[in-house]
Design goal:
The chain is of the alpha+beta class and 173 residues long. It is built from 3 helices and 9 strands; from the N terminus they run αααβββββββββ. A hairpin with a 5-residue loop joins strand 1 and strand 2. It is globular and about 40 Å long.
Amino acid sequence: MKRRTLLSGLLAAPALPLLARTASAKDAFHTPQVDTLDVPADYWRDKVSDAAWQVLFEEDTERAGSSPLDKLYDPGTYLCAACYLPLFSSEHKFDSKTGWPSFTQPLVGHIGTRKDYALIWPRTEYHCARCGGHQGHVFDDGPAPRGERWCNNGLALTFIPAGEPLPALRGDA
């Protein structure tokens, strides 16, 4: 690396938080098919575990390999752990070997996205379109044909096996 490139990068680093705030405001959640709930994050505190609340509403990340959902490949539906909105079908789940449940695509209209600059370079962060609960990040290194890897925190999901009824949506305060 050239010294000039390094120095330019170091000089630009203080501006990154400003870019992150601008991107977050500009890249609002896209909710074309789901009504957004108007409840504060604290509403969910007694409805999910403390660890799940940290992931969903403080954008924490669980330790890789810690979720039993990572190695679960039974037929069924993956719901948001907070509001129970269906987010993924098991038919789109694959083993990404990352230690987190991964999918090739979400259910259409049930995910909101925005740019995330927390690790300096931009990533696409995604959330439940209904309650805003943080789910994970989408990357462009997944399998064909879409090439997407929707990398999800297991704590942010609830799995319902095929043939079992989905629970009623929750959160209408």
